[in-house]
Amino acid sequence: MKKRILVPIAPGTEELEAVTIIDILVRADYDVIVASADFSGQLSVMGSRGIILTAQCKLVDVADEEFSAVVLPGGVKGAEIFRDSTLLVEILRQQKYDGRLVAAICASPAIVLEHHQLYPRAIMTAYPSFQSHIPQDRWRNRRVTFDVNHNLLTSQGPGSALEFAIEIIAQLSGKTFAKQVALPLVPLPQLHYEKLGEE
User: Fold this and answer.
1) Would the pLDDT of 122 be above 70?
2) What residue stretches are annotated with the DJ-1/PfpI domain (predicted)?
3) CA distance 81 to 59
4) Cα 197 → chain centroid
């Protein structure tokens, strides 16, 4: 059965992260649903760099559906809207309760996940300037961090978005398939792609 992925966007979402996540997961032939968390209900939102991003639907339209993963792009203002969306927070709580993957990058691990104490025991990373938001014993200064005990994947920022997206595929479909998706992209060899496929 095809993997279904929810990617929320909002005004202030980091465009490079959002587009990279969506693009790579589409390349994996996943069913990627881009949903607007904008409180006004607009499907088109302005990202953090002034680029317009357009969702396929409103978040409320898919709130009761099941997803293989819920993936939060960063961008401070976008993450703050995610944080303040009771609907999205409930979706994340249900995703965690069901043991399915949650992934967040940049500001979202700190502003959304840590703010609501959704994963109070999980290790995570985030954009480096948000390190103070996460207890030192749970912080990992790595570009991409996966907590196997909580099925939580986090990453640091726009420059790590490609690795982050490939790791989502590795967690959902295995390292061999993730490598098949990654290699045609001509990724930098030092970004640990050579380890993909080592089941």
Assistant:
1) yes
2) 3-171
3) 12
4) 22
Q: How far apart are CA 113 and CA 146, in angstroms?
A: 14
DSSP secondary structure letter of residue 114: I
Contacts within 8 Å (CB) and 24+ apart, 93-101: 93/118, 95/67, 95/70, 96/150, 96/151, 98/66, 99/151, 100/66, 100/67, 100/68, 100/69, 100/70, 100/151, 101/68, 101/69, 101/70, 101/151, 101/152, 101/153, 101/168, 101/171, 101/172
DSSP state of 193: G
Mention the CATH class of domain 4-195.
alpha beta
Q: Which amino acid is at 80?
A: E
Q: Judge contact between 105 and 74, C-beta under 8 A.
A: yes
Number of neighbouring beta carbons within 10 Å of residue 190:
7
Model confidence at 196: pLDDT above 90 = no
Q: Which secondary-structure segment (H or E) carries 31? A: strand 31-36
Q: Is 116 exposed, middle or buried (0-12, 13-18, 19+ CB in 10 A)?
A: middle
Whole-number pLDDT of residue 199: 37
Judge whether residue 193 has pLDDT over 80: no
Active site residue ranges: 106
- Look at residue 188 and tell me whether its pLDDT is greater than 90: no
